[in-house]
Amino acid sequence: MLKHFFISFLPAIFLVIVAVPIVVMVSVLRRKYSNRRSPLTHNLLRPPGHSLRLETERLRDELQESFMFALVIPMMMYIGINLSQMMGGIGLAEIWVYVLITAFVEIYLYRKIWKVLLELRPKSLGLEGEMFVGEELNQLMLKGCRVYHDVPIEYGNVDHVVVSPSGVFAVNTKMLGKPRDRGQDEKVTVNYTENLMHFPDRIISIPQQKLLTEAKALSTFLSKSVGEPVTVEAMLALPGWFIKSDRNGGAPVRVFNPKNSAPLFVKNQSKLSEQMVQRIAYQIDQKCRDIEPQLARTRRWELRN
Length: 305
What we know:
The chain has 305 residues and is of the alpha/beta class. Helix content is 51%, strand content 16%. The chain has two domains: 2-130, no CATH class; 144-288, Trna Endonuclease, Chain: A, domain 1. The protein has helices at 2-8, 10-32, 50-86, 92-138, 208-226, 262-265, 274-288, 294-298, and strands spanning 146-153, 156-164, 167-173, 187-191, 196-198, 203-205, 232-237, 242-245, 253-256. Helix 3 runs antiparallel to helix 4 (92-138).
């Protein structure tokens, strides 16, 4: 009887053996550092791809949770059937009820996992793109520009904002994968007249309305904040692609490769004074500096010097 009981609960015993040491270690470390706090007294600026990073982290947590339940549910069914058998027997009909309930739950979890996987891949790719564009645009600070990332606005966020004497630029990143066949042309032909981007394997419209809406929202915010009209130019970054265009100077959105793109932001003609650049940068800085240091939030963890 005892042997049968032990075999019935063997999956649960394995789960306990795995989970208990982890819980103990986390509890010990929290107690050890519970009297520590972060030395930082100011919030941090948003890094490139901050919003996408939070979204991908949420999706990964959801994926891990679904995987865990998908593994645990069959074990619970096994324990339930054996426990019912020990308490007086179980018929074939009851067993089928257990099996059907487990099957429905597993199908739900598998569909959820599939949906998360489909959503996670493009967001992860987009995060890499924003990080790359952010690294390239950060080089502009060596030329006197101010660069900010993931700037929150009324309609969401602007991936990157560059403030220079030549103007204010709202940069949106679009990360698109290339064909695996390296023999194909890796050039993008931008047709501003038709508002289209011709890739080797597809044709995509320039999201002009979205980009202009973001630029207008940022312009409205800055104009109200500094008390003077501030024009914001909308731009679209395509990392990793060679871009050929028919630009004639009249297109409202500029499509560019962020690699060595300094001439687009640092021009001979200055539109903003140094004082105005500082005023605009201050307003954007305040808007982006909203990441509270983690140790300041939890007041539990801090590495020893």
